[in-house]
């Protein structure tokens, strides 16, 4: 075997000498007839040499890989067999092996072959039918496979365990781990020794001449023996070998160098945050991209994504290509002339356009209509995107340009909006660690990447738990028809079977309200609240702990006392103390109210001959009974009046009266047959596209949300928003009308309020468009919009009976509105408990060592009433753990409610719910303004004063 080449940096004088001597002999070959003649004769043997080497090496490499895998097997017999083979073969010289194979093994194989085929009635073959050429190849294969096996084994074992664990944590399958992590690195380590073995084999193939195989050595021997010109013959022979081996050796070094320094592994490395050069896309990928609908211009109605053309396999190549485009755009910014607002800040906001184009349809589909492929893509994309955004904020050249602009901002003649965008952009860089250097900068990047991976896993575990649990519904005692129908529909969708209860809120909540079977309620409730804490692979408890400690580390690296301090800096609330003060102001009245309610409910339960204390799975059941008794309202009687289609019309109608919006259905391909789309106009001018995706299905994540596939902006032209409202309402059986609970109808109005924030947006820069505002401000438009559902004239018009078309009877309407504050103690307690746990998880300098224990302590401290549990316990608290969005920010719903109560109060004080002046103020200062000013400023302009919690307590019926 050749030793591994030394890494030396000397000038290769040896190569000059070789070239000089080689050149001399080449010249002789060209000019001297004798040399020419020898070369001609020998050249016939070269092909045999090349053939023997290539075939032998390919077979040996295949066998070697098999042996290497055997030697890492879990089974001792397999391991030891590989070991035995390797040791024996390596101990025998190649020439002995050749003779042994040729004259012992080969005849043995012939005999064995004849014995087998003889029993089948075939004629025997003769020894000489087994050519010496193949005997030689087999011998070389056996000999080299043992050496190559060792090369492979060392290469595979050199990959650190940590990397494989990291890949496991990313959720990569074993095959993808091998392909993306182990193989590329092992290959780079294996290549040099493997190449050396190949060169050695070129030389060792000369040994086949002892068997009389006419390779180049044998040809040389024959020539020399025939013409007696040993000097010339062996010179030519040596020259041929040297040409082959030195040529290979140089080629091999180039390849190694290439693998180390260049980017042919770019497409693999990019997944782990490396840079990718545009030229490393192969022609195949380029061809694929030309037909990829995510990379072409969209000739669709309103430039909606062409969902009918988009296939799952389009996403990954489109994202790869979009990242290249985006990176090229960033590089161009950094290479540009002196920084200006246009060539830096505006260019930066345009750089992401190709990414948004590829990702916005993907995220819409991954959230609302997922499948295993999309889940896997999600796992792949999240570290890529997090790496990309870290790369931008870690780009020192880019940050230097922003700093230059920031330091000269007073001389730049910026508009208010531009000044705000510059401030936010710079703050974003600083908060991402742009001012950090060295270890701290590297560590921060690692922490962020890991957090993004953990967040994705948290969501997926939750989805898996939600999807896997269901309970066959055998006993329907007490259940209203709509629930039985929905349970049938869920069973149909699941596996075509009978009715089932799933963990979808729209099924489980009414089940808990109505089922007479206390044991089944307990079973369902425990399953519902155990999401993410069921042990095994989908358990989220350890993930939560890791997420909290990484967040604390992140805040400390950036110089904040706690993650809550870091997080709240950009919020309207600004400090943890302000949040705590707000929550505790609400907590005590809510708890007192809930405790009084608990006594009433427990007494009702004892009347039912159920003993013991009131349990969490009893609350909704007795609360519903009490509601029916005291407010003469039951959900089942109410439900036929709340038709989905009519409630959508109601939401549209209110926005028409307030802001003049009109809605026309659009016929465009969407990502799921249940989606509907409308063209939103005002005075004939296109304002936005609104998409409603209302029904629950197993491919949809739970909850309700509003997302934008495109946000309004003017920098890249007059771009209008494309907004989606996603809900999880129970789908009616075919042919029947979809009915909502009052809660569902509120959700519909809530999400539509978010949609208005996007659709009415009127700013130049995407960074501050629509819902891009402080987290504790973003729920103001949505929660405020819920108030219009409570306006009696709205319900009188739109709450009509599904079968008769009759409007809701006045007394039912009154009791429904009267019941709106019913059980507010309960819902406020379950909410505030979650918000407190979220805040305290993040408010300490160190993260809690055991979040579950910390959660118990916090609840103990605030005196959580026994029959109520947190609305979201830690293992399924997706708001807080699925991403950073609501971490130490869950309080913001209540913060916004303080404002929405106060803001709606403003309408009532000034001409009523549809007062045009107030509507105008709302649009100008809040709905169209996005993040163009600080939230507190915007609110002051709208209302003329800051709100306090009094209106909230009154609104919740907790004012005492
Ligand atoms: Zn919301």
Automatic annotation (TrEMBL):
Q: How is the cofactor bound?
A: Binds 1 zinc ion.
Q: Could you tell me which residue ranges the ABC transmembrane type-1 domain spans?
A: 46-252
Please give the Gene Ontology molecular function terms for this protein.
carboxypeptidase activity; metal ion binding; metalloendopeptidase activity; peptidyl-dipeptidase activity; transmembrane transporter activity
Question: What subcellular compartments does it reside in?
Answer: Cell inner membrane; Cell membrane
| Top-level taxonomic group | Bacteria
* UniProt-listed GO biological process terms: proteolysis
Primary location class = membrane
What's the protein name? Putative amino-acid ABC-transporter permease/peptidyl-dipeptidase-fusion protein
Its lineage opens with: Bacteria, Pseudomonadati, Pseudomonadota, Alphaproteobacteria, Rhodobacterales
């Amino acid at each position: 075997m050749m030793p591994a080449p030394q890494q030396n940096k000397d000038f290769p004088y040896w190569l000059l000498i070789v070239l000089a001597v080689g050149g001399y002999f080449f010249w002789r070959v060209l000019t001297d007839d004798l040399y020419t003649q020898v070369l001609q004769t020998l050249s016939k043997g070269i092909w045999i040499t090349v053939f023997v080497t290539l075939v032998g090496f390919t077979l040996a490499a295949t066998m070697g890989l098999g042996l290497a895998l055997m030697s890492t097997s879990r089974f001792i017999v397999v391991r030891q067999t590989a070991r035995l083979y390797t040791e024996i073969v390596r101990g025998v010289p190649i020439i002995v092996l050749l003779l042994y194979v040729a004259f012992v093994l080969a005849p043995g194989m012939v005999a064995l072959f004849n014995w087998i085929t003889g029993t089948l009635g075939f004629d025997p073959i003769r020894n000489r039918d087994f050519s010496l050429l193949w005997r030689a190849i087999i011998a070389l294969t056996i000999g080299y496979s043992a050496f190559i096996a060792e090369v492979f084994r060392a290469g595979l074992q050199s990959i650190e365990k940590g990397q494989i664990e990291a890949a496991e944590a990313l959720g990569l399958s074993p095959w993808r781990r091998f392909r993306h992590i182990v193989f590329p690195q092992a290959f780079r380590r294996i290549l040099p020794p493997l190449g050396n073995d190949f060169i050695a084999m070129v030389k060792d193939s000369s040994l086949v001449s002892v068997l009389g195989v006419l390779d180049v050595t044998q040809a040389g021997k024959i020539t020399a023996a025939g013409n007696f010109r040993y000097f010339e013959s062996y010179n030519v022979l040596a020259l041929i070998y040297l040409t082959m081996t030195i040529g290979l050796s140089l080629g091999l070094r180039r390849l190694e160098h290439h693998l180390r320094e260049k980017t042919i592994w770019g497409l693999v490395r990019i997944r782990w945050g490396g840079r990718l050069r545009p030229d490393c896309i192969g022609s195949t990928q380029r061809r694929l991209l030309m037909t990829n609908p995510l990379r072409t211009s969209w000739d669709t109605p309103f430039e909606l994504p062409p969902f009918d053309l988009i296939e799952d396999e389009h996403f990954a190549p489109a994202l790869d290509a979009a990242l290249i485009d985006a990176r090229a755009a960033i590089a161009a910014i950094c290479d540009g002339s002196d920084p200006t607002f246009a060539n830096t800040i505006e260019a930066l906001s345009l750089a992401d356009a190709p990414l948004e184009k590829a990702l916005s349809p993907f995220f819409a589909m991954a959230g609302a209509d997922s499948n295993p492929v999309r889940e896997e893509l999600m796992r792949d994309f999240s570290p890529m995107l997090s790496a990309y955004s870290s790369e931008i904020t870690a780009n020192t050249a880019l940050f230097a340009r922003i700093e230059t602009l920031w330091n000269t901002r007073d001389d730049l003649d910026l508009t208010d909006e531009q000044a705000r965008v510059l401030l936010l952009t710079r703050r974003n860089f600083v908060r991402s660690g742009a001012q950090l250097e060295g270890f701290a900068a590297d560590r921060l990047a690692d922490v962020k990447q890991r957090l993004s991976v953990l967040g994705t896993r948290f969501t997926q575990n939750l989805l898996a738990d939600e999807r896997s649990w269901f309970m066959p519904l055998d006993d329907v005692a007490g259940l209203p028809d709509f629930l039985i129908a929905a349970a049938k529909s869920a069973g149909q969708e699941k596996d075509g079977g009978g009715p089932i209860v799933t963990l979808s809120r729209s099924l489980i909540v009414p089940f808990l309200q109505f089922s007479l079977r206390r044991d089944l309620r307990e079973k369902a409730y425990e399953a519902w609240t155990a999401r993410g804490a069921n042990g095994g692979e989908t358990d989220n408890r350890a993930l939560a702990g890791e997420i909290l400690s990484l967040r604390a580390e992140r805040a400390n690296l950036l110089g904040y006392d706690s993650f809550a301090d870091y997080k709240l800096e950009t919020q309207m609330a600004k400090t943890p103390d302000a949040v705590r003060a707000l929550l505790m102001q609400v907590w005590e009245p809510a708890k007192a109210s809930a405790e009084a309610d608990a006594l009433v409910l427990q007494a009702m339960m004892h009347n039912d001959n159920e003993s013991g204390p009131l349990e969490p799975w009893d609350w909704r059941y007795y609360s519903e009974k009490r509601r029916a008794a005291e407010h003469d309202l039951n959900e089942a009687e109410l439900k036929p009046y709340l038709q989905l289609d009519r409630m959508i019309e109601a939401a549209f109608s209110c926005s028409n009266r307030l802001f003049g919006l009109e809605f026309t259905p659009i016929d465009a391909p969407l990502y799921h047959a249940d989606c509907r789309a409308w063209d939103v106009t005002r005075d004939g001018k296109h304002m936005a596209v609104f998409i409603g995706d209302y029904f629950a299905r197993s491919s949809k994540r739970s909850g309700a949300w509003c997302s934008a596939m495109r946000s309004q902006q003017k920098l890249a032209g007059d771009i209008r928003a494309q907004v989606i409202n996603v809900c999880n309402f129970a789908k009616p059986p075919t042919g029947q009308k979809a009915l909502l609970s009052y809660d569902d109808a509120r959700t519909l109005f809530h999400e539509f309020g978010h949609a208005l924030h996007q659709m009415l947006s009127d700013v130049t820069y995407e960074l501050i468009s629509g819902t891009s505002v402080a987290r504790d401000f973003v729920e103001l438009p949505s929660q405020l919009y819920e108030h219009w559902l409570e306006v009696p004239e709205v319900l009188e018009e739109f709450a009509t009976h599904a079968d008769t078309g009759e409007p809701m009877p006045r007394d039912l309407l009154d009791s429904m509105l009267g019941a709106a504050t019913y059980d507010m103690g309960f819902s406020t307690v379950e909410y505030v408990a979650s918000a407190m746990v979220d805040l305290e998880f993040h408010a300490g300098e160190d993260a809690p060592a055991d979040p579950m224990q910390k959660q118990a302590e916090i609840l103990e401290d605030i005196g959580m009433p026994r029959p109520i549990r947190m609305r979201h316990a830690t293992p399924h608290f997706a708001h807080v753990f699925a991403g950073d969005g609501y971490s130490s920010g869950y309080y913001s719903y209540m913060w916004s409610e303080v404002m929405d109560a106060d803001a709606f109060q403003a309408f009532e004080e000034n001409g009523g719910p549809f007062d045009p002046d107030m509507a105008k103020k709302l649009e100008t200062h809040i709905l169209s303004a996005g993040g163009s000013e600080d939230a507190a400023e915007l609110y002051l302009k709208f209302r003329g004063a800051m709100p306090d919690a009094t209106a909230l307590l009154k609104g919740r019926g907790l004012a005492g």
